[in-house]
Amino acid sequence: xxxxxxxxxxxxxxxxxxxxxxxxxxxxxxxxxxxxxxxxxxxxxxxxxxxxxxxxxxxxxxxxxxxxxxxxxxxxxxxxxxxxxxxxxxxxxxxxxxxxxxxxxxxxxxxxxxxxxxxxxxxxxxxxxxxxxxxxxxxxxxxxxxxxxxxxxxxxxxxxxxxxxxxxxxxxxxxxxxxxxxxxxxxxxxxxxxxxxxxxxxxxxxxxxxxxxxxxxxxxxxxxxxxxxxxxxxxxxxxxxxxxxxxxxxxxxxxxxxxxxxxxxxxxxxxxxxxxxxxxxxxxxxxxxxxxxxxxxxxxxxxxxxxxxxxxxxxxxxxxxxxxxxxxxxxxxxxxxxxxxxxxxxxxxxxxxxxxxxxxxxxxxxxxxxxxxxxxxxxxxxxxxxxxxxxxxxxxxxxxxxxxxxxxxxxxxxxxxxxxxxxxxxxxxxxxxxxxxxxxxxxxxxxxxxxxxxxxxxxxxxxxxxxxxxxxxxxxxxxxxxxxxxxxxxxxxxxxxxxxxxxxxxxxxxxxxxxxxxxxxxxxxxxxxxxxxxxxxxxxxxxxxxxxxxxxxxxxxxxxxxxxxxxxxxxxxxxxxx
RNA sequence: CGGGGCGUGGCGCAGCUGGUAGCGCGCGAAGUUUGGGACUUCGAUGCCGCAGGUUCGAAUCCUGUCGCUCCGACCA
Length: 578
Prior knowledge:
- It is a single chain.
- The chain has 3 domains: 20-72 and 107-215 and 404-454, BirA Bifunctional Protein, domain 2; 253-381, YbaK protein (Alpha-Beta Complex), CATH 3.90.960; 471-577, Rossmann fold.
- The chain has 15 helices and 31 strands.
- The protein starts with 20 loop residues before the first helix and ends with a helix.
- It is of the alpha+beta class.
- Residues 200-205 have low confidence and may be disordered.
- It is 27% helix and 28% strand.
- The radius of gyration is 30 Å and the shape is globular.
- The protein binds one RNA strand through β21, β24, α13 and α14.
């Protein structure tokens, strides 16, 4: 490919809406163009990258006996009504009607389609296990797309679905897929991706893992232990506390606290720390707007996912009205005898004494609250967000750190949620009718490309790992107006292509600065420089994009040398994988 | 869904106490340059997001609307 003919502009200035490096470089380097909020077209360089990523995905899925299939993008609402998700999923799913008025949806995930595809086939145990996968466009009407390809509305995803006749078999296969995922990230140049235990959210099921690239620009919070290998999604991390009770319990005393509402204000007023207070966090159930009051230690935050899981339904922050029986800013556990309230207590309060709390009376708080004495009936559950420096649920050491990460894939043990609702059954050896157990496994292709860029770049542009780079060699003819340079570079271009290498060839009559800047933006791992200076010495320069490698080769044997270097690099990558 | 910000050539921006648009980059031509985004000269490119309103006159003021974006909520 001649760079001169490559469609798409490269430019110097950072567009104002690009806030992360991957987005900036992909826009500046002519990789993509925004079409609408969270919807992009790809130019050739990005298309070549995603094609290579997809090929890696195919190979690794095939290696775990996956069969590539293809589900439709557009599906009838009836298919989603079978699983119940037509109703349970909100505005994230795009819905429309066809000409006859029949409701349709755009696929945002394909569990239903997968079950539909195989439920007639999988009627006997002898057909199991099997796995099907596709690489397909998904549309999710995200509330807030952001950061270029990191979070978009339309994207390509590899999604896989496995079907099993026993939990043990699923678990065995799940483990295989976990390893396959590790290989995928390693091959794509992101061996640093870690898997974390996660909350499975709307997908249902129990065990799941998210694969995370740790980076400050990530959207998810991840809990890591510095002392052991414990890793978890923020939502799933158990919060363990060692509650320290004072020896002497003071008496419960009402204190006048005019115009003081927040925990910080109350504690400042009472000259105590927020961790010696009991705060109330009020929610309402989405289903019926009934109130849920959660008491938690003043310095901690509520993990709403834990709360949702405990309640078995979604909640939203409460709107406290005059007549709901709650004194906003003065809610406390003592004397809160309200009929229609669900009152919950976080473990962080268990056994504590000498706390401050609201008195359920306007402008009054209590001091000297003793949970054991004053709130004897309380049951304690874990609703708290784990904190930096918190206690690791695995090793028990106070070595928890919280990092940000980009989710570049995830795997779920789905169980029978979809096979049950959609009536997929098989007969086992004993002639008993059973529901197959499912697993599912997803990787977003574009997001992975963005994550690679995020992890591998310098101030000038991306540094694509060889396995996913849009081209393998970037041939620069510096001073292409020089006849010797041009003639030799043309010849070398020809030779490299004949050796089966992927070459982007820049023979534009532009200054070296422009040429190198463009090469930096395209991030091709090996750069070959032909110039008058080099020609005079009978040599060409071969340098790697990451500057780790730089050597010269004779003009006569340059093509062979380059091919050798690439072969060696490919082989090295293969060795590392083992 | 809540709260901010912004819509002016392809990109980045100025103009916004009203008088019909300007700068830098990029683009085209000519020439001088040539190993990290060169220089000079000339040139092209704008329904100033859209629709109303105020006014003799609107990029500028008012109203509405659409779009983009950031923070939060939500989230396979």
